Amino acid sequence: MHDAPDSARGSSPARSIPHCPGPDAPPRGPSKFKVPAGAVDTHAHVIGLPPAYPFVAERSYTPPAASPELYLSMLDATGMSHGVLIQVSVHGTDNRLMVETLRSNRERLRGIAVVALGQKDSAYRELKEAGVVGLRINDLFGGGVGFDALADYGALCRELGWHLQFLTDARLLPDRASAFGRLPVPIVVDHMGHFPTSAGLGDPGFQTLLSLVRDGGWVKLSGAFRTSLEAYPYRDTVPFARALAEAAPDRCLWGSDWPHVAHYKPMPNVGDLLDVLHDWLPDEATRNTVLVDNPQRLYGFG
Length: 302
Description:
Elements: E1 40-44, H1 68-78, E2 82-86, H2 96-103, E3 109-113, H3 121-130, E4 132-138, H4 150-160, E5 163-167, H5 177-181, E6 187-189, H6 204-214, E7 218-221, H7 224-227, H8 238-247, E8 252-254, H9 270-280, H10 284-299
Parallel strand pairs: 1-2, 2-3, 3-4, 4-5, 5-6, 6-7, 7-8
């Protein structure tokens, strides 16, 4: 189903919202190693379609559906024991589909929500009871919640026993590092800082990210297809992933980022991305720590 033209939403000028392709199918596991028991994919999305699950007008892309059934099939096909669903930006603060999926898979899944401040306590409690363990702040894709009320979100997460997850460009981190340091909850940075590899390891933003994870932050070793300037297997991402794993081996996570929304180059298969993880972390013990031990501890599995 296509949304109404943007010109029909109000008096603002019409803008183009691109439609993005679906994931490479069928998903498969890696060819370079065997996924260990207890592995967790810490980053994926479920997506519904309007009118049942409306898209926000301020979104930056229009995705196809990614149903809970397809998501669970992806976990099964790739050998993942558990998964963490991240509220997708196109649904804004309407977490219903994610929450419905969590409630149907309480032992297997956890969730990261996007919420407005000032809700009734019961609304936040319902999210926690469903399996939500953190909140996401996102200033890269329209429909997310930005950094303006960072301290308030930190206080809310502290009250609920949650963490804060950030989707932002690492080049913005030097200006935010002090605010992050004052947060009373754990922080998680998405996709290795989501900035182009051309910026280099010495970029102040990446160096700030390294400092954040050395000082107790978490980071997702994910999103190679977004940050690489090369085609698969994204070899230019190797030094960044290895630097982060060396800085915080006990606080690195892996995520597929399925169904790879807002990506318009050739789609990777999840199995390809697991093989990239092998290239980043050829040592089995280190890889198992990232796939099993670290996420089980942070997200409360086991």
